[in-house]
Amino acid sequence: MIERRRSVARQGSVARRRDTAPRPQPPREVLLTVQPDPRMTLIKLRKLGEGAQGTAHLVQDKRTGAQYVAKKTKNMIETFRGLPYEAYILAHLLPPHPHIVRLINYDYEPGGQRRRGWMNEEFDALYDLCSGGNLSSIVYDHHKGGWVPESFVWHVFGQLADALTLLHEGRDCHSRSDPGGMYRGAKPVVHRDIKPDNIFLATEYKKGMKPGEYPDVVLGDFGLATTELYPACGGTINYLPPERQSSRAADVWSLGSVIHFLVFGSPPSMMPYSKKVTDHWEGNPRTRRMMYLPRFYSEKLDDVLMECLQYNPRMRIDSFSLFKRIMRDAPLSIGTRR
């Protein structure tokens, strides 16, 4: 009898513990991690550019004189609880990184509703300014009077591979305690629109600069970025891979195309501008023809580039292996900022 009472008491105790155990809570609303200074008043200075996802302007804080890039989004791709992919990825998913653009704030609540508004009503996103412009202007300026130095090619290659390693595998190569280790909560991100116009220089690049003096390279414009796998490829057609599917391997092809552009002034194959020929080009991936680098570039650089431009995505090098390969083969003075 006594043993039965003990058994019943134990059962009652277990039942009470189960009743009082914390129940799973519904996901909390995502709130932006970086809040702006409420005293900030933005003045529009000039238009920087316009694309499929929106318009970018150079703006200035009236109180401090600091300059930023402000964007007005046209086509907002919603995802995580209603927030645009770009806001979710840059403000909530990725840790700060020297080669990925910093989103200061996004003026949307979950569900796509505007907040009370701390910015000029024309804009909904504010970013750090990369005052050196984009990679396209550097290349066009260089090819007027010579080739881009190999040291600068390695510099761009290494820093972009570093950025892709964080996006694709969640590996933080800048961690002092665990270089190359995965950060907590890592989730693969595919950029889907890597091209020279979306790659920026933190400060001005000048001809004659030596290794160690080059400005940092920053990957921007995450308007098409996603954490999902899409069967169709987004982005700019000249930089799309042969398989025409969005994936981490597709991003690596696009990076190789950017390096190809940096050397030759064009991606592996420029799309012809006529509807009939364009349809053939899109339907026949073999029309993408990469060129081997000129002889005054090293064989190691050429080999690494061709690893990115493999037709078969399964044979293409992954971003972390690419980063390690560049760190191994590049001159000692070239690489990512530590």
Automatic annotation (TrEMBL):
The enzyme's E.C. designation: 2.7.11.1
InterPro entries: Kinase-like_dom_sf, NEK_Ser/Thr_kinase, Prot_kinase_dom, Ser/Thr_kinase_AS
GO molecular function list: ATP binding; protein serine/threonine kinase activity
SMART domains: S_TKc (SM00220)
Domain Protein kinase: residue ranges: 42-332
Region Disordered, annotated ranges: 1-30
Gene3D superfamilies reported for this sequence: Phosphorylase Kinase, domain 1, Transferase(Phosphotransferase) domain 1
The organism's place on the tree of life at top rank: Eukaryota
Residue stretches spanning the membrane: none
Record keywords, A-Z: ATP-binding, Kinase, Nucleotide-binding, Transferase
Name under which the protein is recorded: non-specific serine/threonine protein kinase
The species this protein was found in: Ramalina farinacea
